[in-house]
């Protein structure tokens, strides 16, 4: 099931994307919900980020090939950090560069959406706590990342975390192709089977530190091939089974 968040005639709602139409739902997204019986043509709605995250938890250096291209050893534990949820934008929204001097990179990522509260979740039960998966672009200011020696500021600027276009609730995350195209050219082309710490391990590790709650989003890391963005670029993140997240890059 593909869940989308949309705006239609001034009203924001959730719906099921099916056969080119949006079927609005009522109830609790992370509880019980049902379709209203209404149906909207996809062309009549504006897709938004599929949720407003509660917490946005990111994992660094989590693909083997990306670690090799960076010349760094494979992390023994997930490298976890927090990013501001206010950086989230949806499909079709602009990625706004704060300046034209710093190197600012794209990072295609599989994002995990948590649907159930849990603490100390064993990896064998991680699936019980996952609502679904979506595409993410973990836009990153490399100059600030190096200067600060940590990631939060470099990755938390407004518009630096596009999510979408939908949350797919029925997906096996173990071997998915993750691709990034910039102006139609493939920049990143990896698979989640290359993850150093796969999704169940991340859920176990993070929940050993603090509870995971409905609406939390985990960014699982990026494959090799990250590169700079410039104004006018069209960035597309595609993950099989979810769809394509497209955003244009604009000047400050």
UniProtKB/TrEMBL annotation:
Domain of life of the source: Bacteria
Domain Rv2993c-like N-terminal: 1-50
GO MF annotations in UniProt: acetylpyruvate hydrolase activity; isomerase activity; metal ion binding
Positions of the Fumarylacetoacetase-like C-terminal domain: 55-250
GO biological process, one term: carboxylic acid metabolic process
Keywords: Metal-binding
Similarity section: Belongs to the FAH family.
This protein's name: 2-keto-4-pentenoate hydratase/2-oxohepta-3-ene-1,7-dioic acid hydratase (Catechol pathway)
């Amino acid at each position: 099931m593909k869940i989308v968040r949309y705006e239609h005639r001034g009203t924001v709602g959730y719906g099921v994307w099916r056969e080119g139409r949006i079927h609005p739902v009522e109830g609790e997204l992370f509880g019980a919900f049902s379709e209203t019986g209404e149906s909207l043509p996809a062309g009549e709605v504006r897709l938004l980020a599929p949720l407003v995250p509660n917490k946005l938890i990111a994992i660094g250096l989590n693909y083997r090939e990306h670690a090799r291209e960076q010349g760094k050893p494979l992390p023994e534990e997930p490298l976890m950090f927090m990013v501001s949820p206010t950086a989230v934008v949806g499909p079709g929204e602009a990625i706004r560069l704060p300046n034209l001097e710093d190197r600012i990179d794209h990072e295609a990522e599989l994002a995990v959406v948590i649907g159930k509260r849990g603490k100390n979740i064993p990896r064998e039960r991680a699936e019980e706590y996952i609502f679904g998966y979506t595409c993410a672009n973990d836009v990153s200011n490399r100059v600030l990342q190096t200067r600060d020696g940590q990631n939060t500021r470099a990755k938390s600027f407004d518009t630096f975390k596009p999510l979408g276009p939908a949350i797919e609730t029925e997906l096996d995350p173990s071997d998915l192709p993750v691709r990034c195209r910039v102006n139609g050219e493939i920049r990143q082309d990896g698979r989640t089977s290359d993850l150093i710490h796969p999704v169940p391990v991340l859920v176990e590790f993070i929940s050993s530190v603090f509870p995971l709650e409905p609406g939390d989003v985990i960014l699982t890391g990026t494959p090799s091939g990250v590169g700079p963005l410039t104004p006018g670029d069209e960035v597309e993140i595609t993950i099989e089974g979810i769809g394509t997240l497209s955003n244009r890059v604009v000047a400050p």
